[in-house]
User: Fold this.
Amino acid sequence: MAKLNHEDILAYLEEATILELNDLVKAIEEKFGVTAAAPVAVAAAPVEEAPTGPTEVTVVLKEVGASKVGVIKVVREITGLGLVEAKGLVDKAPSNIKENIKPEEAEEIKKKLMDAGATVEIK
Assistant:
C-alpha cells in the first residue's frame, strides 16, 4: 500500500462531501476506538459552604444557680412541660433541656436560662 503524505490527506478532505467526511469519521472511531465528539467543559456546580459548626446541638442545664423558681419557669416555657416535670428536670441538673435543635435556637434558650441565673452549656 502506498504511503500517503499530509498533502494527499488534506487534498482529499478538501474535495470530500459532508457525507463522505461523516463516513470517514465513523470509520476512524470504529477502527481506533475513539470518539470525535467535541469535549464539553462541564461547569462546576457552585460549592455550598459547609457549616462551620454542628447543625444540631443539645442545651444542657449544668447548674440551677440562686433562683431555682425562675429557672423552673424558663424550663417550663422552653419545653412545654408541667410544673412537676420541669421541677424534676431542674432538680436532676446537669440535664438535657432540649436536644437536636439548631444552634441559633440553642443560643436563645441559653440566654433565657442564663438570665434566670442558671449555668448552661451547648453541646
Summary: Helices lie at 6-15, 18-32, 68-79, 83-91, 103-115. The mean pLDDT is 85. The longest helix spans residues 18-32. Strands lie at 57-63, 95-101, 119-122.
